């Protein structure tokens, strides 16, 4: 009997050893056979189910136009011919499934953000500081600046706005456009465009908060941004607007980017001496070079800065403000000097534009912000219809939406909406 029991125990042990060897061998084959570990497959399942596109090869920004000669720039409404303009369509990315899942996962946390987040607010700007969100945008009557705060992105939708500044009531023909709130050099600042004495004499201006609580401390109007003594161009010739600022970690400096015209509306960059003063003369960053930037108007405006994986991206808006409005993209290595023109690359095709099938008309003037779970978000405006009656500036139905940013395997941001992230809450358009 004991011999039989010993034999059975020995056989059981051998079977267990054989099973263990098979399991180890099988585990070793799974990655090679399936191409990705189980964790990556789970991440992919949580990614937005939207088409991910790759952009055409980035091209060098066209040759610089000295700002002293800008009086001969492109006319506002008539486009000059561009030699050898290539109109290569955007191609679908061919990304292996495992790599696609890994690159998409950082922007895909499953958080349901409201779409639209805020109605009747063009040029939306959402800023996060020490866990608190602050929101502002163009007020429909273009006569004031309001500020809203909340502890979450969706909390902005229910928060009550507070008016922090109103234009001079003695002069009715003024535009107040595109405010942006920033915490820069130890103080709260709002940059915005404001008419200076006549309807279209619009300049980049600023407010300063006299305290550390932007919702409760008083704000002071600081006037037009100051330039260097040798700079006769910035905020002087033509219209200037849409100023944004960012800190360059490698250079350890602050920079301003803004739109300015004569002729076409171009983007310029300069170093900042303080939040209200330029330290250098400006450099022409980009002007409307391609057909999609010249529909009805020759426009580059609304710059926004995004840092990711050793790159600094600057999105911008192009063309007129109807359904033709769209978004372009610039990029530079994070360690390169942004004041050297050749360091910048410009994408030849828009990165986001009207999608009639999804009722996205004229998307643009965006900002970037960290979401509730650390993901990167793009806040942008668009209408849900194409035809506009009368002056498009008086059509207030550009609403602020939240887009989750993903990246392709090259680290380039991808702009798209998952179905669940678009028009997922009820809203009403303004009746003119």
Class per helix and strand makeup = mainly beta
Tell me the domain tally. 1
Described by strand count, sense and barrel closure, the largest sheet is: 5 strands, antiparallel
Shape: globular
- Rg over CA atoms, rounded to whole Å, is 26 Å
Spatial ordering of strands, largest sheet:
2-20-19-18-17
CATH topology: Tachylectin-2, Chain A
Strand content: 35-45%
In total, the number of strands is: 25
Number of helices: 4
In round numbers, the mean pLDDT is: 81
| Head-to-tail CA distance between termini | 98 Å
Order of helices and strands: HHEEEHEEEHEEEEEEEEEEEEEEEEEEE
CATH superfamily annotation? Glycosyl hydrolase domain, family 43
- What CATH architecture label applies? 5 Propeller
Name of the CATH first level: Mainly Beta
Helix content: 10-25%
Low-confidence stretches: 1-109
């Amino acid at each position: 009997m004991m011999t039989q029991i010993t034999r059975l125990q020995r056989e059981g042990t051998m079977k267990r050893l054989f099973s263990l060897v098979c399991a180890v061998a099988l585990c070793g084959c799974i990655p090679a056979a399936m191409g990705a570990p189980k964790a990556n497959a789970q991440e992919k399942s949580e990614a937005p189910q939207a088409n991910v596109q790759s952009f055409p090869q980035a091209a060098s920004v066209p040759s610089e136009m000295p700002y002293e000669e800008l009086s001969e720039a492109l006319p506002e409404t008539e486009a000059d011919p561009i030699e050898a303009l290539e109109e290569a369509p955007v191609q679908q990315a061919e990304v292996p499934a495992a790599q696609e899942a890994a690159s998409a996962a950082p922007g895909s946390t499953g958080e349901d953000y409201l779409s639209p987040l805020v109605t009747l607010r063009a040029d939306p700007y959402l800023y996060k500081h020490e866990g608190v969100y602050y929101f502002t945008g163009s007020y429909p009557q273009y006569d004031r600046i309001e500020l809203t705060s909340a502890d979450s992105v969706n909390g902005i939708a229910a928060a009550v706005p507070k008016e922090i500044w109103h234009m001079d009531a003695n002069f009715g023909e003024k535009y107040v456009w595109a405010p942006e709130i920033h915490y820069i050099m130890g103080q709260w600042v709002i940059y915005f465009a404001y008419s200076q004495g006549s309807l279209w004499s619009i300049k980049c201006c600023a407010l300063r908060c006299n305290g550390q609580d932007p919702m409760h401390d008083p704000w002071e109007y600081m006037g037009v941004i100051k330039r260097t003594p040798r700079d006769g161009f910035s905020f002087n010739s033509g219209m200037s607007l849409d100023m944004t600022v960012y800190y360059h970690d490698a250079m350890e400096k602050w920079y301003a980017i803004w739109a300015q015209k004569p002729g076409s509306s171009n983007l310029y960059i300069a170093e900042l001496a303080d939040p209200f003063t330029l330290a250098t003369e400006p450099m022409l960053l980009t002007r409307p070079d391609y057909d999609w930037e010249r529909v009805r108007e020759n426009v580059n405006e609304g710059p926004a800065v995004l840092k990711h994986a050793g790159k600094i991206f600057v999105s911008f808006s192009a063309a007129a403000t109807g359904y033709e409005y769209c978004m372009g993209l610039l990029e530079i290595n994070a360690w390169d000097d942004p004041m050297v023109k050749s360091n910048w690359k410009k994408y030849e095709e828009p990165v986001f534009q009207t999608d009639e099938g999804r009722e996205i008309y004229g998307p643009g003037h965006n900002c970037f912000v960290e979401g509730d779970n650390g993901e990167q978000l793009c806040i942008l405006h668009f209408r849900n219809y194409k035809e506009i009656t009368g002056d498009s500036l008086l059509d207030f139905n550009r609403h602020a939406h939240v887009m989750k940013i993903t990246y392709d395997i090259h680290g380039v941001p991808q702009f798209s909406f998952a179905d669940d992230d678009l028009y997922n809450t009820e809203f009403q358009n303004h009746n003119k």
